[in-house]
Amino acid sequence: MKTIKEFMAAGHTACDNEFARAEEAALANNWSVAETAFTTFQSAMSHHFKMEEEVLFPTLKSSGGPAGPVHVMLMEHAQIKELLKQMAEAVAQKDAQRYGGLSETLLIVMQQHNYKEENILYSMADDILAQEREALIERMQAV
Amino acid sequence: MKIASLSPDQAPPIGVPLRFFAVAPVFLVLAALLLTIGDGNPFANTHSPALLAATHCITLGFMAMVMLGAIQQVVPVLIGSQMPAPRLVAWLTMLPLMGGALLLTTGFALSKPELLNLSWPLLGLAFLVFIGASLFSLARATAKNPTRTAILLSILSLAGAVTLGMLMARGYAAGLSIPYARLATAHISLALGGGVMLLIVGVSYQVVPMFQLTPNYPKWLTTYLSPAIFGALLLSLIPLTFESAPRWPGLIAEIIFWILTSGYAVITLKLQSQRRRRVPDATLSFFRLGMIALLVAASFSLGSLLPTAYSDHLRMLSVLTFLLGFAMSVIQGMLYKIIPFLVWFHLFRGGVNAIKVGIPNMKEIIPERWMWWHLKLHGGTLLAALLATRLDMAAWLVMLGLLLQGILLGCANFAGISVYRRTYRRIEQAST
To answer: Could you state, in order of their start, the residue ranges of all structural domains in chain A?
Structure first.
């Protein structure tokens, strides 16, 4: 059976792949591919955030998990959402220069965020929510 | 499980790392100027005062300055543990390191023992504070990952290198008769082969996959590589400790050291070639140049073990390639990611108003073309350095290269600081 960490980390990798595809196409000014790839990337990200914000984080908090780390993760989600919004504008304007700068920024924000989740928060969730792991993953998949 | 590691105030104020990064390029300029003093080609003699002074300008004033500043910034995130009293530690490492490096290098350049005598207590203080704070932070780290092990071994090597360095500076200033040649070899091995090598290895485990979306380093490698490098390094020092000890175990250990470090370079290059992010990136190019230089340094060192007339020359080339080619490439490449990110990150904390006035993205902080110019300039300096031991003309090119690199990096850093200040003011105006 998958741990929460394995399940969620696989989600990060999937988002990374879409990120790379969209960035490469945008920098090559190949906007038809970039638009599709960015939309896929954005919806993968928003699905991942929903799983966390609607299921994982509230369950963790109500099971006595610490509020501090969850709060920080939510703040970083807000940063990432803002960058995604600006990137969507750059795609709409077909502005490769701006897209490249924003995606460079997003990459670091996103990678250090994922690092903290995978090394601290998900392990914490696997410990605290060990009993209900399977049901929790099912609930997240259903979001 | 410690939660402090995810605290929003985990990062020290932006001024802390930027001060280290702003001072460092000044030492590159100083290194270039120091190389011009003295008679003849400073690269022709490994013991020339100008070369000794310039080398310490680069290792202490530039490399240690950047690495100490960056470690205080990055390690809390990588190992999940804060440095104690971050502001105090920052001041107590930066100021004595700056003063100590200036005194030591001028002491070497002007052959003034009294300056060396003033330098070593300052350098000792800087590293003592830094090493103490780092060990404290490592001891309470929640993440018991291979990066933590590598950084711990790097810091232990650094402690050894600093102790030997202080001993030599003190001995030289007081005219003591101690085995300088053997101490110097151990000092260089611990500083470069341990301190620098293991730090870069440990940080690579995280940043190589993170920033280029490469596959992860294999688990066996991250578990065993840094202890194996550290072990080989210590074994290679045995013949220096006991004069009567046979030479062959040390030679075998040195061969193992270079095989391990070359293996790391080859695997890093292979991972980078499998990266999912395929867009041009100056940091990546600096990093790859660094790995190729590490392979070249390894071949020079292995070549120097053969009993030929070129042995000393090859050893000198190996140190130059390791220092300028491997360490400096990786450090400069990392700076071009760290500075723009810090500026963006600290501006974003301005919240709603920051978003309203618009924060420059990472590529609007330091112009990207400067980074590519710097890469070319750095590559050119490195090639000149390889020829400088034999060609006087090339020695001049190294000086010019270092001078221009210092100026360019200084400008890049100040560009970052001024973008930060300008945007910060606009955010403040928007909130009133």
So the answer is: 4-141
Amino acid letter for position A9: A
The parts of chain A modelled with pLDDT lower than 70 are: none
Residue B38 has pLDDT above 80, yes or no: no
The interaxial angle of helices A4-27 and A31-50, nearest 10 deg, is: 160
pLDDT beyond 60 at B7 = no
CB-based contact (8 Å) between A5 and chain B? no
Which pTM does this prediction carry? 0.93
Please give the residue of chain B at the shortest CA–CA distance from A85.
B355
| Assembly ipTM | 0.88
Which residues numbered 43-102 in B keep a CB inside 8 Å of some CB on A?
A: 77-78, 80
Q: Are B232 and B256 in contact (CB under 8 A)?
A: yes
Share of chain B above pLDDT 70, in %: 97
* Residue to test with chain A: of B74, B77, B277, B423, most A Cβ within 10 A: B277
Decide: B335 and B66 in contact? Cβ < 8 Å: yes
Question: Is the Cβ pair B6, A115 closer than 8 Å?
Answer: no
Show residues of chain B in contact with A119, CB under 8 Å.
Answer: 80, 143, 145
Residues B31, B86 contacting (CB under 8 angstroms): no
Pick the residue of A61, A84, A107, A117 with the most B CBs within 10 A to test the interface with B by mutation. Answer: A107
Indicate the range of B77-81, B218-222, B344-348 predicted with least confidence: B77-81
Can you read off the two tokens belonging to residue B340? 């723009």
> Does the distance separating the beta carbons of A20 and B277 come in below 8 Å?
yes
Q: What DSSP designation does B363 have?
A: G
| C-alpha pair distances (Å), B11 with each of B7, B81, B292, B349, B394 | 9, 11, 33, 11, 43
What pLDDT is stored for residue B213 in this prediction?
93
Name the CATH superfamily housing domain A4-141: nmb1532 protein domain like (1.20.120.520)
Mutation target vs B (from A29, A81, A105; most B CBs, 10 A cutoff): A105
Instruction: State the virtual CA torsion across B402, B405, B411, B417 in degrees, nearest 10.
Output: -100
For the stretch B369-422, pLDDT in tens is 999 999 999 999 999 999 998 999 999 999 999 999 999 999 999 999 999 999
